[in-house]
Amino acid sequence: xxxxxxxxxxxxxxxxxxxxxxxxxxxxxxxxxxxxxxxxxxxxxxxxxxxxxxxxxxxxxxxxxxxxxxxxxxxxxxxxxxxxxxxxxxxxxxxxxxxxxxxxxxxxxxxxxxxxxxxxxxxxxxxxxxxxxxxxxxxxxxxxxxxxxxxxxxxxxxxxxxxxxxxxxxxxxxxxxxxxxxxxxxxxxxxxxxxxxxxxxxxxxxxxxxxxxxxxxxxxxxxxxxxxxxxxxxxxxxxxxxxxxxxxxxxxxxxxxxxxxxxxxxxxxxxxxxxxxxxxxxxxxxxxxxxxxxxxxxxxxxxxxxxxxxxxxxxxxxxxxxxxxxxxxxxxxxxxxxxxxxxxxxxxxxxxxxxxxxxxxxxxxxxxxxxxxxxxxxxxxxxxxxxxxxxxxxxxxxxxxxxxxxxxxxxxxxxxxxxxxxxxxxxxxxxxxxxxxxxxxxxxxxxxxxxxxxxxxxxxxxxxxxxxxxxxxxxxxxxxxxxxxxxxxxxxxxxxxxxxxxxxxxxxxxxxxxxxxxxxxxxxxxxxxxxxxxxxxxxxxxxxxxxxxxxxxxxxxxxxxxxxxxxxxxxxxxxxxxxxxxxxxxxxxxxxxxxxxxxxxxxxxxxxxxxxxxxxxxxxxxxxxxxxxxxxxxxxxxxxxxxxxxxxxxxxx
Length: 653
Prior knowledge:
The protein is α/β, with parallel strands linked by helices. It contains 19 helices and 14 strands. Strand 7, helix 1 (139-145) and strand 8 (151-155) form a beta-alpha-beta unit. Helix 5 packs across helix 7 (285-299) and helix 11 (421-446) packs across helix 15 (562-573).
C-alpha cells in the first residue's frame, strides 16, 4: 500500500505502529450495526510474497515513519484459475475493528483511564486451504452486536499451491505449510501491535471455521512445543479439528502424485530439482493459479484434496535458512500425526468452544450416489485401508436405504439426488467433522481443561439441511445475510452473545452473568460422569432459510444418542487409517509397527470409560495388549490386536 496523505488524524481514527501510521474510518451506527465501530483495513503484517518471496516463509515488515490510508480492503490471496482484480501475491494483510471513540495512551489503555485494554478475537478463514479470504466473516458486525467491548482481527493467508505444496522437494527446501506460517506470523503481529489499538495481548481468542478450525488445532499442538508463550489464550473451532480427514507426510504417494501433476500443468516437469523453486518463482502468477486449480478440480469430487497441511517434523533445520534466528520457528508446525499428539498430551490446555452443523457432508458428497456400491466406493477411495469388516460395520451403523427402505433413516433425499445421498451425508459428516470435533473436546477434558463447550447448529437452509458453514453469518449477526428471518435473528442473538462472552472472559466462562440457559461444560460421551455427552443445540426446528415458517427453538440442551456414540467410536478407532494413511513415515518394521499399535491401543483404552481406566491404573501390568486381553477383547497378540482394531492399512508413507 503506497503512502498517503489523507485527511488528518483529527478527522479520522488513526494508529501509530512501528511499520507506519494508519488512518482508518468510522462505520456509523445503523440498522446493521447497533454500535458504531472503527475499521482499519488492508494493514500488511508481512512482506509481499511475490517474486523472490514466492514459495518462501513470510518475512517481517521493516520499520517506517510513513502514513497510510487504511479505509480500503487490501488484496486477497490468489485462488481459483483466474486472476481477479482484487487478487495479488501482496496479500498478507489484515483488518482491525474496534469500538468507536477509543483513544489509546502509550501503554495501550484508554486515555480516560477508565477502560482497560480490550479482549481480542482473531478470525481464521476457511476454504479447504484452497479458497477464501479474511472478509468471509463480518467481524465488524460481531463486535457491534456484542454488549461488551472487544476488538476483532481478520486476515488473509496463502492458500492453494502458493501456501501448501507438499512434496519431498518442498520439504528439503524447508517450504512446507507456508499458509500456516503466515497465520503464525499474524498471531505474532497481534501480540506485538494490538496494544496500539487498545487491545489486550494477554486475552486473545482465535476463531476458525472449517480449514480455519483445522488450523487452530494445529496451532494448539505446535505452541505446546515452543519456548515462547502461545500468542493466544482461548479458541473457538467451528466445524473443524486436527483429526478431521487425512494429515499426511509430505512424501506420501498422494502428495507426490499431485505435486507432479502440478508441475506438469505449470510446464515445469523438465526442470531439475535443484532449479525447481527458482524456476517456479519466475513463472507468471496466472500460470501458477491455473496449475493449482487444475489439480484441485481433479480431486475435489473424491474429497482427496490437494494442497493441504502436512506433518513437517522432525526437521529442525528446515526453516533456519529462510527465517530470522531470533524467531522460534524451527519447531515444526505439525510435529507429528495429530492423534499421536493428542495421545501424548502434547497440546495446549486452553478453554475452547467447538461444534458442528447437523449436515456437515452435504456440500462435499456426490449428489448422484445411488447404489450400495457407490457408498462403499466413496469411502474406499477416501480411506483405501478400510477392510471388508470395516465396510460391513459401516453398513450396520448407516443402514442402506435401498436394502432396508422400511427401517433406514436415510430414505428421504432431495428430488433428483441418488438414493445413497442422505446416507453418505451422515457417514461423511461423522467421519470428517462431527466425530473429530467431539474428539477434540474429549481430549481437552481428559487433559483437565475446565471450560470446554460443544454445540450443534441445527437451523436448516437451502435443500432443508443444516449445511457446513451455515452458522457463519449467524455467529457474526450479519444482518445482510440473516435479517429477513425473525427466528434466525433470535438464534443469532444467542450465538453471537455466547461467543462474545467467551472472548471477553479471561477464563473462557461462557455462563458468567448469564440469565437464561446455561451452557453445560462438556463431559466425554464415554465417561460415566453425570452430564456425559451434553451439548448446546442452536436452532432446532428452524426452517426459515429453507422457505418455511417455523422459528424452532433458539437454544436448548441435548445429549448425544447411543447411535451417535457408536458412530464416533467406530471413526475414532480407525483414525489411523486416515491420518498418515496407515503407517507413520519411517514406520516400516517393528518400531513403526509397535508405535502404531501402542498409540492406537491407548486410544481404545481412552474409550473404555473412566471407571474401567481407574481399575486398570491400579494394576502392575502396563502392557497394552495384556490390558485389552483382560478386558475381553479377542486376539490380543500384538499383530492380531492391530488387525482387530483396523489399524493396518495397505498404504505406506
